[in-house]
Batch of 2 targets.
Target 1
Amino acid sequence: MDSVLFTNVRVLDGTGAMPWSGSVLVEGNRIRQVGRSVAPISASGATVIDGAGATLMPGMCEAHTHFSWNDAATLSAIQKMPLEEHVLWCAKVARRYLEAGFTSCVGAACAKPRLDVVIRNAINAGQIPGPRYLAASQEITVPGGLGDETLPHLPFPEFSFGVNVNSADEMRKVTRMFLKYGCDSIKLNLSGDNFTPDSPADTTWMSDAEVAAAMDEVRVRGKRGTAHARSAASVKQALRHGIDVIYHASFTDEETLDMLEAAKDRIFVAPGIAILYAMLHEAEPFGVTNAMAVKMGYQIEWDAALESLKAMHRRGVRVLPGGDYGFAFTPHCQNARDLEFFVKYLGFTPAEAIRSATVYGGQIMMRGNELGQVKEGYLADLLLVDGDPLANLSILRDPSRLLAVMKDGQFAKRPEMASARQFRRAA
Ligand SMILES: [Zn+2]
C-alpha cells in the first residue's frame, strides 16, 4: 500500500481547533496517523514530504457547483454551447477545481440533462481527474420562471436553460427522467432571480403540488431535493417539503429563520453571495453598471442576504461557501473567495469559514463521518498550503500558494519541494 508522510507541517484539522505542529501519515486512501509533536511519526517505506512549516488542512468542498456554466455572461450563451464542446468544457473545469483545492463539489444544476452525471461517472471511473462529485439534474422550472428561456415563437425545449414543467404530473415525469439518468439530486427553481427581470428574486413560482410530486419521487429513490430559493416564501416552501440543500436564501423573515433553525441538523444553505457582489461591483466590463445592477434589485438583495445569513450563522444553521461561479462576472476557480466574504460580510471567524468549507463540506457530501477533517481514519483529501489561511484566507485562491492537493490518497497536484525525499523500504 502506498503511504505518504507529511512532516514538519502545521495541522489545521478543520474543526476550529487551534493548529499544531506535527506530522500526518497517509496509507492508501486514508489518514492513518496524526502526530501532535514535532518529532515525526516513524513510517518506513513512506514517501516523506517535508512541509517546511506549511499548513496541512482538509481539501475544501464547493457546496453549489455548476461545472457546465462556461464563464459566459448570459444563460443563453451557456445553453447554446454544443453538447460535444460542453462535455469537454466540464471535464476541463472538473480538473481545475480539484487542482484549486476543491476535493469535493456538490453539483447544483447542469445546463444539459446528463452533463453532471457523465462527468461524475468519468471521475469515479478514473477516466478524468476531478473532485468527489454529487451530480445534479438540470434546473427544473415553470413557464416564465428562472431558467425558462423559450420564446413565444420558438417554444422548443432545446432553447431552454431549465426544463419547464406545467403540472404535478409533468414534474413527476421530469423528475423520474433525471433519476433514471442517475442524478444524485433534483434541482427545483422555486424562486425567481434578479438576473431575469421578468421573474425577480423575491417572487415564488412553483405550486406546492409540483414540489410535492418531485419530492415524492426523490424519496422513493433515496436521493436529494435541492432548491434555488431566494424569496422568503420559497425558502419556507423548500423547508415544508423536506428539501435538504437550499441555495441563496436571501430574503427571510422571523418565521423563515425559525423554520431554518428548527431544521438546522438536516439542512444546508449555500448562498453563493459572490455573484450578488460581482453584479453590483464587477460586472461593468460585461455591460452591467452598478446603476443597472441596483435597478435590477441587486443592492436590495445584497443587503437582505447579509442580514439573513448573519442571522442563520448566529442560529447555528450550516452556511457553506461556493456558488454560482462560472459566469463572466464570477469565473470558475475563484470560489475560495467566498471564505473571505463570509468573514468580511457575514460575521464568521476565519476558523469558522474553514470549518464550513471542510467539516460541513464532508457533511453535505453525506460522508461527515469520514470526510472533511484531518483525523485518523478519515479519507485522505488534503491541501498543503504555503502560509497560514487563518491569517490570510486569500492564499486559498492563489495557485502558487497551494503546494499540494491530495484526493483519496493520490496527489492531484504534487508538491515540488526540494526537501521532498523518498525512502525505500530497507527490506
Ligand atoms: Zn446556482
Target 2
Amino acid sequence: MEITAAVLDGVGEDFVLKDLTLAEPEAGEVVIQIAGVGVCHTDLAVQQGHLPFPFPGVVGHEGSGTVVAVGPGVTKVAIGDRVAATFNSCGSCSQCTAGSPSYCDQFMPLNFSGARPDGSSTLHDGDAPVVSCFFGQSTFATHAIARDRNVVKVADGLDLEIAGPLGCGVQTGAGAIMRSLACPKDSTLLVVGGGSVGLSAVLGAVVREVGTIIVAEPLASRRALALELGATHAVDPAEGPLSEQVRAVVPAGVDYALDTTAMLPVLGEIVASLAQRGTLGMVGVPADPTSALPVGLIEIQLRGLTFKGIVEGDSDPDLFIPELVDLHLAGRFPFDRLVTKVPFAKINDAVAAQARGEAVKVVLVHE
Ligand SMILES: [Zn+2]
Ligand SMILES: [Zn+2]
C-alpha cells in the first residue's frame, strides 16, 4: 500500500515527508494505521549519528493506532484492534521466556538492523528499499508494519493518539522505578533529568508511594511540572554541586537514584548522593558509546553500592503496558500531562521544540 513517511537521508538531515510503498504483511506481522507517534531521544540519537542505523531510513518507535491488516498466523490482534507498539524481541531466548524481553539475545538485530530478519525491507521508494523495522516498527509514518509480538492492545478508555509513548519512554521511566529498582514505600529517590523518562519515573515513584522524590533538572518549567506530578523536591543543578543539594534534603543520601543523562560529571555527583547500600539505575544513552563509569572498586565495596543498567524499564510490555493503562484510567498515572500533540507534517519543528525543552514529549498526530 502507498503511505507517507518521514525519511532521514543522513546524519544531521531534517526529516523529509515522502510517499513510500509499505509491503504486504508476512507471517506474524501486523499493519497499523498510525494515530500518534511519540518522539523519543533514541530517534534523535539516530538523526544526530549517536546510534548506528543505516540511511535512508524511517525511525519512530512510540507508535499507536489501529490494526488494518494482519499476516498469516497472527492471532494476538485482529483488524480493528487499538494497539500501542513497543520494542521487538524474539520470544524464544532465555531472557524472553523468563519475562525479560528487553534483554533479548536478539535485541540489537531485531530493533536496529533496519530490515526484517531475512534482510528484506518493509518500505520501498519506487524499487529502492528504504531502511525500516526501527524497533520493529518505523512508525514516523501514516502506516507501519510491526510484529504481533511487539504490539499490545490498549483499553477503549485511553486516548489512542498518546498510547505510543507507553511502549518506550514512559515504560522506561516508570518501569525503572516500579520494576527494575522496585523502590519501596517511604524510600528516598533522586531522579536526574526531568524529560519524559525522568518525569515518568516520578509518576512511577508516586504509584510506589516513595517518600522523598528529588528531581534534578536545569529547566524551571520541568522542575515545576515535576512538583505538580508528585516530586517532593526539585533542584537546579546550576545552583551548586548536586550531591550537596541532595544531602541538604536527605543528609544520609538517597536509597535510589535514576540517571537519564549518561553524562559523566553528573554521574559522579549522583554516586556521591547515594546513601550507604544505595542503588543507581542507569537509563541514559551516552553521546559517546565508549563512555565508562569511573567509580573506585574499594568505594563500591565499602559503601555497598549497586549499579543497575536498565533497558525499557525491565518491562514485559504485554503485562506492564496494560498495568500502566489501568493506573492511568484510574487517575493514578497522568502521563498525558507530559504530552504535547503536534501535526505529523510539523515533525522538524516538533523535534526542535522538544530539543529546546519546550515540550517534554511530542506526539505527532495525523489529521
Ligand atoms: Zn529473545
Ligand atoms: Zn525510545
